[in-house]
Amino acid sequence: MEISGLVITFNEEKNIGKCLDALFKVCDEVIVVDSFSKDRTVEIAKEKGATVIQQSFLGDGPQRTHGLPYCKNDWILNLDADEFLDKDAEEFILNKKYLDGNYDAFSFRVKNFLADKLIDFSGWYPDHKVRFFNKKTAHPSESKVHQKIITQNEKKVAVHILHYGWDSLDQIIAKKNQYSGWHAQQLFDQGKRINTFKPVLNGTVAFVRCYFFKKGIFNGVDGLSIAMIQAFFSYMKYAKLLKLQKRNLK
């Protein structure tokens, strides 16, 4: 099939087996870049037939870039361990529709799930991600959090990735809090500077957008919870950036 699967992992024993089974449906090899997991992630990956490369975590974009030279094929399907192709995405790849036209990257729609519940409100659907690209002309950015694929000719297609990232609201909050710290550091390193009002303003705007304009209000407690979590993430990202600024002035 001349497609390489690429996955970055750390303590993903819960998901990696299912992820690799799904990838091998459309890929003839899978490369796992593991950040020295403490659980059975590496063992399971090898049992499933993946090639495992171990590398201390460099950040989201650099970690993916580190795995590219190990991929023998030009076309790369780069999923997270908790992401799986939906049937329409499998068909898109197996039927080689990606060869129609001169595109070097494809953005798929993402269905995000909380446990088994689809979150299709508060701006979480359709959430687009480029997970399929040609490494000759497209590549991951150097961003350490929320990296993007740098591409010359990208196309959005109405096929889906299934993302089972969280079993509870607690997990979403914990992950968003972790990401907010990484994102704040990235913004600081890029020279981004803000005033005292930025965290409150952005948190408020994020809540209003998700709850009122993105239909969270029509989804009961879940809609309110997701909108508040988005507001929390936006607020904490800039609050932590503000702390970094003040610390740097001392």
Oligomeric grouping of the chains: single chain
CATH class of the largest domain: Alpha Beta
Number of distinct beta strands: 11
Low-confidence stretches: none
Share in β-strands: 15-25%
**Rg from alpha-carbon coordinates:** 19 Å
User: What name does the CATH topology of the largest domain carry?
Assistant: Spore Coat Polysaccharide Biosynthesis Protein SpsA, Chain A
Q: Please give the share of residues in helix.
A: 25-40%
Mean pLDDT: 95
CATH superfamily of the largest domain: Spore Coat Polysaccharide Biosynthesis Protein SpsA, Chain A
- Overall shape: it is globular
Biggest sheet, in brief?
9 strands, mixed
Task: Provide the domain count.
Answer: 2
* Count of helix runs: 7
Spatial separation of the terminal alpha carbons: 57 Å
Structural class: alpha/beta
**What's the CATH architecture name of the largest domain?**
Alpha-Beta Complex
Listing every helix as H and every strand as E from the N terminus to the C terminus, the arrangement reads: EHEHEHEEHEEEEEEHHH
Explain the overall architecture:
This is Glycosyltransferase involved in cell wall biosynthesis. It holds the Pfam family Glycos_transf_2. This protein has 250 residues and is an alpha/beta fold. The chain has two domains: 3-166, Spore Coat Polysaccharide Biosynthesis Protein SpsA, Chain A (Alpha-Beta Complex), CATH 3.90.550.10; 169-248. 39% of the residues lie in helices and 24% in strands. The protein has seven helices and eleven strands. Strands 1, 2, 3, 4, 5, 6, 7, 8 and 11 form a nine-stranded mixed sheet that branches. It has a two-stranded antiparallel sheet with strand order 9-10. Strand 9 (139-140) and strand 10 (149-150) form a beta hairpin. The longest helix has 30 residues, at 220-249. The chain is globular, with a radius of gyration of 19 Å.
